[in-house]
Amino acid sequence: MGTSPSLIPIDLGALFDAPLKRLLTPVEPAIQKFLMVDRLGGMLQSACRETHGQDVFERLLTLLEVTYQVAPADLSRIPATGPVVVTANHPFGFLEAADGHEVYFHRNSVLPDAYDRLAVGTRVTFAEEMGEKGPQASTVKLLGKRGLRV
User: From CA 107, how far away is CA 13, in angstroms rounded?
Assistant: First the structure.
């Protein structure tokens, strides 16, 4: 991919299914250069070295000069305790475990195909395992009122 060994490798092909990946392969080096993937990998490496957990994303946003605003009404819906699902139109998010540590999850781990029903404050149960970059949920199930599965 043309990145130095000290950088976190970013594989653009991993974002696509096999047919699209085959089309991407011949032009991937040019796309990576155009998108400055090496620079992004360096920023991610820096953010990971300087911070941990959710702070990595905050640091990366700072390095990328990305700002955001959260409406007070949205902030008021975030519970002070208990499991919290954080999503923002991305195929991933973070869960808060009972002891407060954050657990990464991908939309494919949400059962049964309920990712689109997730919102901040949704009660869930999940199976945690150690992934390459830290804790991750292998399965996530939505809970209804009184802890009953939906």
Answer: 19
